[in-house]
Amino acid sequence: MSRVQQGRFTADVASLGDEIVVFVIGMRINRPLKVAAWWPVFTAMPRMLRHLSDHPDKGLLGYQQSLAPLFLVQYWRSFEDLERFARDRDDPHLEAWRRFNARVNRSGDVGIWHETYRVRTDAVETIYGNMPVHGLAAAGSVPVRRGGDSAAARIGAAATDEPVLPPY
Fold first, then answer.
1. pLDDT band for position 2 (cuts 50, 70, 90)
2. 85 with 134, same domain?
3. pLDDT beyond 80 at 16
4. Among 8, 53, 31, 41, which Cα is nearest to 149's?
5. How far apart are the first and last CA of the chain?
6. Looking at residue 81, what DSSP letter applies?
7. Per the omega criterion (within 30 degrees of 0), is the bond before 40 cis?
């Protein structure tokens, strides 16, 4: 179990440059009994994540995954890093993608999807209260600074007349 950072923290987005990429990817098992179709797709991502964790120079800043439903949120240093990883013959993605297309792409047995967002770091707001390092904070986290108690304050938005929630 990961160590809990007690208190309130935010991702250190100022250290990441002007932009990050948020990549969301998932799979849907349309025919659960066709294990031979979906199992290779299911097991390909952990291998890719191990490879990326072993090679931080590839540009993956962090990730968070869910098993129900099956999806993964990845944070990348740049779109160019993500694209380079996806197409590099020496990295594990390209071959897995080719096998998927050859074996199951048109069968309907397994569905896959992804969404890619280029995000200015000055438009990112995060909060982690009494949590282990999580999500974008994997790239670095800092304690919430004085005056940063609200999402609006942390993202630099104008204050509203809404009541302020007490810190948790």
1. confident
2. no
3. yes
4. 8
5. 22
6. H
7. no
Q: Which amino acid is residue 25, in one-letter code? A: I
Q: How is the chain split among helix, strand and coil, in percent rounded to 5?
A: 35, 30, 35
Percent of the chain with pLDDT over 70: 93
Retrieve residue 122's tokens: 């000055």
Which residues are CB-contacts of 27 (< 8 A; sequence separation ≥ 6)?
38, 41, 42, 70, 71, 110, 111, 112, 113
Clarify whether residues 101 and 57 are in a common domain: yes
Q: Please tell me the distance from the alpha carbon of residue 20 to that of residue 78, in angstroms, as a whole number.
A: 5
Q: What is the pTM of this model?
A: 0.84
Query: How many other CB atoms are found less than 10 A from the CB of residue 29?
Result: 18
Q: State whether 39 and 9 are in the same domain.
A: no
| DSSP of 34-79 | -HHHHHHHHHHHHHHHHHHHH-GGG-EEEEEEEETTEEEEEEES-H
Same domain, 28 and 67: yes
- Whether residue 165 is predicted with pLDDT greater than 90 in this model: the reply is no
The residue-averaged pLDDT of 58-87 equals: 94
> What range does the domain containing 31 cover?
17-120
Tokens 């890719």 belong to 48
